[in-house]
Design a protein that fits this description.
Layout: H1 2-22, H2 30-39, H3 49-62, H4 72-82
């Protein structure tokens, strides 16, 4: 299930990047606005292609068996590998 969610995020990021390039920004929910703000790293009201490329690169790093999908196990392993460990 999580792999489909990750693919949806990557797909939405790509679509968002295309829409933002055209300057079209429809009204949306607070949750979508919050996600958009996370992806708009330079706060210019647009999502850059660089962000989409970064999302694809992260997906590719997590897809350890290169089957085009990220399983729960790959997601957990990728998260452990990519996220800094806390000293707690």
């Amino acid at each position: 299930m999580r792999s489909s969610k990750l693919m949806a995020v990557v797909g939405l990021a790509a679509l968002g990047g295309l829409l933002m390039r055209s300057g079209a920004r429809a009204k949306s929910s607070p949750k979508v606005d919050a996600e958009f703000k996370k992806m708009d790293r330079n706060h210019d009201g647009r999502i850059s292609a660089g962000h989409v490329a970064g999302s694809k690169a992260m997906f590719d790093r997590m897809d350890s068996d290169r089957d085009g999908f990220v399983s729960d196990g790959e997601l957990a392993a990728g998260h452990a590998r990519l996220m800094p460990k806390s000293g707690h």
